[in-house]
Amino acid sequence: MERRKASPEQLNMLLHFLEEDKELAIGKFTGLEGRIRQTNAWITITEKLNANSGFGSGAIKTPDKWQQAPTQSTGPTDDMCGADPSTSNMKWPSDSQHFTPADIEMSLGDGVVTDPDAGMGPNEVSSAPVTGKPLWKRGRPVRLVHDRLLNLEEERIRIEKQKLLEKKRCNNIRLKMEKDRLEIERQRNVLLEKLLVAVEAVAHR
């Protein structure tokens, strides 16, 4: 359920929490009361850190995982929901590789001889059609290439949008699951505190 890497903002928040609470940073808690205090503190910190996960830029972790975050730069392998679209097997050209109609026309124009009789001897007959208009200016080949590139780009944009929507949906699911788990843990600590009070009351009778 956890994402692989926490964002710099989340790590800064975590270090700030630990600097403010030295006992929590050291982890020296004894007895049931100390354990309850430690657990409640990490639940509160975890809620704040997970809420700052942003849109796919941060991590959603359990309290145990956040305790390991300062000394652990990488975490478990992401599950399918947490996979980064940038690691997909489908490769698309970068922005610098996208072609414009002007680039296509220049590329096609460089490879076409506008004078079909150029470089031929006086007794040779040209088989190319005689026309005053270069082949690359006739439009159809250029339009076909342009339409194909345009269709590919539209498909790439559609897939990227679909990935972003799926990523957002998965992120919301993970965040809700972790909130529910933390609420259960908080209720458990409340019951432990009540049990501790009851035991102390019986012991002092």
| Overall average pLDDT | 71
Biggest sheet overview? none
Which residue ranges are poorly predicted, with pLDDT under 50 across at least 5 consecutive positions? 73-96
Number of strands: 0
Beta-strand portion reads: under 5%
Oligomer: single chain
Any idea what the radius of gyration is? 32 Å
Secondary structural class: mainly alpha
Helix and strand sequence: HHHHHH
Kindly state the percentage of residues in helix.
55-70%
Shape: elongated
Distance between the termini: 47 Å
Tell me the number of helical segments per DSSP (H or I, 4 or more residues long). 6
Organism: Spodoptera exigua
Region (Disordered): 56-78
Protein name: Regulatory protein zeste
3D structure, described in words:
With 205 residues, the protein is mainly alpha-helical. Among the domains are: 1-61, no CATH class; 143-204. The protein is built from six helices and no strands. The longest helix is centred in the C-terminal third of the chain and has 64 residues, at 140-203. The radius of gyration is 32 Å and the shape is elongated. Residues 73-96 have low confidence and may be disordered. This is Regulatory protein zeste. Residues 56-78 are annotated as: Disordered. It comes from Spodoptera exigua.
